[in-house]
Structures are given as structure tokens and as C-alpha cells.
């Protein structure tokens, strides 16, 4: 990895990254040279690592104050960036704060200020007004997916935050689209732009499937049966459509999760956790899932409904065919449906249901205990291996959060784990284990 020393090479290996892509190489080099950088690169190309490496390098570990502020449009992106920094294990304190999270949790996290603070503009602006943490030492601000933050109505809060930070020397803006306007309140003087927006979808295969009926549910089912057991997202425009599709999938014994803006924060986070650990292979979602969430690489996405704007269509597609891998985007079209001009070149195909969709072998358990209790993944794994006598094949992905942990286990050992582990001791405390 050209621009990395031995320390960073070893840290990135913890994330399974053995080689940087060209965008990451160029971004790291550019941020090290210039104080104002605009990074435009598609969803899934690794922008987070690209800006974190040079920024974390400049953190002073002896200064126990917020030094870098990262503004993001959604709580999911805030949590994703927080997790990436934690997984790196670079010894840098980081916390994520966002709307919908209890103020008490914020107070606990900010009592000892993190070197890197990640958050949504509304919540960050509120804490700055309350003077919950000092802004005197913030020298770097990152506006990640800044156009999305503006689009969902955070302009006033972002302006307020930028105007309050008078000691910032470095500004980094990122977006998945090159059709963006830089807001004037960022006050960029001489920005250096990195444009990779046209280089991210070379492996994407686009397919159009014609539905003979305006109600496309049967066509959706045939498409899923054609694809088989693979992870993917079904994109819709409205919550009501998600509910409609979800009921149909349940009637056909196809497990899935749902993800949209109107859900409670806990339910949204749980949907992503179950999607990441394989409890669900399908996610039925709005464009909220098109960018800024931490999910595994997808084999396909389905446009059950086309988005209103072309750039959102591109962001959806960016969820598959990521980082030079292959993926397929299916467009379900009623035979009399009007299509936008940017889809004129896609020819319809016919699909035969050739696969079967089986229920997932995984279920998700919640263990009440997390990082705040000094509990690690190793502690959780040891508990399930030693106390519940699980084999390696019966224990799946473990995610440790601040006050709870989520564990994927084979569905046939769920009840055994609950009965065996509930009220057991872990790190000198009694834990609760439940199915979610």
C-alpha cells in the first residue's frame, strides 16, 4: 500500500484490507498535501477509509479534547464510522451521537471527550449550543455525504456549526455524486477536488424484468426465485409499499428485514444487524439504505419502484458491484409503465424461477452487556463456546455495542443458548440473553 507505513498496513489488515484502491491512494495523498479537499466517489468505493487514514494520523493522543468533527446525514453512517475507527484499534477515542439517542448516553460519552466526534448536524449543533464539549481544539471538520445532509434539511444546523468553529484548518467534503453544489457557508478558499464518480460501476449488470400486471408482486417473487439465496435489497419509494411487499413476502415464507425513515431507531439498527449477520438475506428499504449504512457486499438490488431522481438511482446501484466486484441491478417494470430517459438503453429480459429460497440458518440473540461493561467479542465467544458448548459452526457474527451485544447462532440452538446462558456471569456481572 503505497501511501501507508507499517503501522497503517497492520491496522487496515484488521478490517481485511490488504490493498488500497486508486481512489483511496489518491485521496490519502491529497489530504496530506492540501487543507481543503472535496472527494466525489460512488457509494461502496471506500471513502471512509480514504479520509480517516490521513486525518487520524494528525490526532494528538495526549490532548483529551475533540480534535476532529465528522458530520453525517444519518445515525447509521455515524455508527458505521464509529465502528470503523474502533475496529482499527488505533488507540483513538471516538463516539457517535445522533438524533433519537438518549441525551444521558451523550452526556456519559462526552464526559471524557473523544478525539473524534461523529454525529448528525442537529444533535451536534444542540451540544455546541449547550457547550457540552469544548470546540477550542477542533482543527478538522469532515462533511461526509454533505449533499444528503443538505437534502434532508440540515442546512441551518450545518451553517451554525461551521460558523462556530473558528480554529478549523482542514475541511474535507465527500459525496457519492458529482452533481453537487458546495454550500457557501463552508467557506472554501482553494479546494482540491478528487473526482472518481464515473469509475465505480464497471461490473454492474443491469436487467429489466417486465411485469404483465401493474401489481408487480408476482414478478418480484419470480425474480427472487431466479436469484436464489443471495443477499440483496429491494428498493421502494414509500413506507406503504414496503409494508405491502413485506406482507407478501411473509405469506410466501421469505424472511426479510425492513428499513425506512419512519422506523424507531432501535428497529432500524436491529434490521441492519440481522442483515449483516445473515439472519435476513433480504432488506426491503427506501432510499435511506442507498448510502451511508454499514452492510455487507450485495449480489443484487431490485428497483421495485424507480426513484424520483436519477442520482438516487445511481446511489441505489452503488450498493452492489462494489470495489470492482460484480453485481446485478434488476428493474421491475409494469409493461405500460413510463420509464425515464436514462433507462432507454436497457432491454427487457425474461427470467425463469430456477432457485429455491430457504429460510436462514441463523437467528439473532441479544446479550445485555457491551463495551461500557468492558465486554469484548472474545468474551462473548468464550461464553457461547464454554458455557453453551457451541461449535464454531454454530456461532456466527458477533457485534458489541455500548450497552448490549448481538450474536448470530444457528436456529436449532437458540432455545438451548437462552436457557443455558441467561443469568450467567460475564465480567463479574449477571447477563440477560434473549431472542430478538
Please tag this protein with its features.
436 residues; alpha/beta; Rossmann fold; Alpha-Beta Plaits; 3 domains; seven-stranded parallel beta sheet; 20 strands; globular
- Helical fraction equals 25-40%
- The number of helical runs is 14
Shape: globular
The top-level CATH class of the largest domain is Alpha Beta
Give me the CATH fold name of the largest domain. Rossmann fold
Per CATH, the superfamily of the largest domain is P-loop containing nucleotide triphosphate hydrolases
Structural class: alpha/beta
Mean of residue pLDDT values:
90
Query: What's the number of extended β-strand segments?
Result: 20
Give the name of the CATH architecture of the largest domain: 3-Layer(aba) Sandwich
Major sheet strand order:
3-4-2-5-6-1-7
Strand content range: 15-25%
Low-confidence stretches: none
The largest pleated sheet is described as: 7 strands, parallel
**Terminal-residue CA separation:** 41 Å
How does this structure look, described?
It is a single chain. This protein folds into three domains: 6-195, P-loop containing nucleotide triphosphate hydrolases (Rossmann fold); 204-349, Rossmann fold; 362-435, Alpha-Beta Plaits (2-Layer Sandwich), CATH 3.30.70.330. 33% of the residues lie in helices and 20% in strands. The chain has 14 helices and 20 strands. The strands form four sheets. It has a seven-stranded parallel β-sheet, sandwiched between helices. A seven-stranded parallel β-sheet has the order 10-11-9-12-13-8-14, sandwiched between helices. Strand 3, helix 5 (103-111) and strand 4 form a beta-alpha-beta unit. Helix 6 packs across helix 8 (155-164). It starts with 5 loop residues before the first helix and ends with a strand.
Amino acid at each position: 500500500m503505497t501511501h501507508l507505513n507499517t503501522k497503517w498496513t497492520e491496522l487496515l489488515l484488521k478490517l481485511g484490507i490488504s490493498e488500497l484502491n486508486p481512489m483511496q491512494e489518491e485521496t490519502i495523498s491529497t489530504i496530506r498535501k492540501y487543507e481543503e479537499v472535496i472527494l466525489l466517489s460512488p457509494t461502496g468505493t471506500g471513502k471512509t477509509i480514504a479520509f480517516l487514514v490521513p486525518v487520524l494520523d494528525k490526532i494528538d493522543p495526549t490532548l483529551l479534547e475533540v480534535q476532529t468533527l465528522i458530520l453525517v446525514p444519518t445515525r447509521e453512517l455515524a455508527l458505521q464510522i464509529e465502528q470503523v475507527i474502533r475496529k482499527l484499534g488505533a488507540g483513538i477515542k471516538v463516539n457517535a451521537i445522533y438524533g433519537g439517542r438518549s441525551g444521558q448516553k451523550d452526556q456519559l460519552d462526552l464526559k471524557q471527550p473523544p478525539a473524534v466526534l461523529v454525529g448528525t448536524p442537529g444533535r451536534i449543533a444542540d451540544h455546541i449550543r449547550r457547550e457540552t464539549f469544548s470546540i477550542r481544539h477542533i482543527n478538522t471538520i469532515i462533511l461526509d455525504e454533505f449533499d444528503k445532509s443538505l437534502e434532508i434539511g440540515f442546512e441551518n444546523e450545518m451553517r451554525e456549526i461551521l460558523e462556530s468553529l473558528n480554529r478549523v484548518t482542514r475541511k474535507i467534503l465527500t459525496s457519492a455524486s458529482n452533481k453537487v453544489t458546495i454550500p457557501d457557508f463552508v467557506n472554501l478558499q482553494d479546494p482540491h477536488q478528487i473526482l472518481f464518480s464515473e469509475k465505480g460501476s464497471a461490473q454492474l449488470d443491469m436487467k429489466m424484468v417486465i411485469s404483465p400486471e401493474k401489481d408487480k408482486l408476482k414478478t418480484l417473487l419470480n425474480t427472487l426465485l431466479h436469484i436464489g439465496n443471495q443477499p440483496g435489497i429491494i428498493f421502494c419509494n414509500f413506507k406503504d409499499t414496503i409494508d405491502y411487499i413485506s406482507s407478501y413476502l411473509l405469506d410466501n415464507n421469505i424472511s426479510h428485514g425492513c428499513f425506512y425513515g419512519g422506523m424507531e431507531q432501535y428497529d432500524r439498527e436491529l434490521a441492519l444487524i440481522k442483515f449483516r449477520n445473515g439472519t435476513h438475506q433480504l432488506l426491503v428499504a427506501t432510499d435511506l439504505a442507498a448510502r451511508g449504512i454499514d452492510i455487507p457486499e450485495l449480489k443484487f438490488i431490485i428497483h421495485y419502484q424507480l426513484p424520483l431522481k436519477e442520482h438516487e438511482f445511481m446511489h441505489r446501484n452503488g450498493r452492489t458491484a462494489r470495489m470492482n466486484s460484480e453485481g446485478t441491478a434488476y428493474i421491475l417494470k409494469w409493461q405500460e409503465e413510463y420509464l425515464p430517459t436514462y433507462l432507454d438503453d436497457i432491454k427487457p429480459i425474461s427470467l425463469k424461477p430456477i432457485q429455491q429460497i430457504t429460510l436462514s440458518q441463523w437467528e439473532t440473540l441479544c446479550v445485555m452487556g457491551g463495551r461500557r461493561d468492558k465486554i469484548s467479542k472474545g468474551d462473548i465467544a468464550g461464553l457461547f463456546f464454554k458455557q453453551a458448548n457451541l461449535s464454531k459452526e454454530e456461532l456466527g457474527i458477533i457485534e458489541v455495542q455500548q450497552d448490549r451485544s448481538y450474536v448470530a447462532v444457528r436456529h436449532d440452538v437458540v432455545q438451548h443458548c437462552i436457557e443455558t446462558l441467561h443469568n450467567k456471569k460475564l465480567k463479574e456481572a449477571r447477563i440477560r440473553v434473549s431472542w430478538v
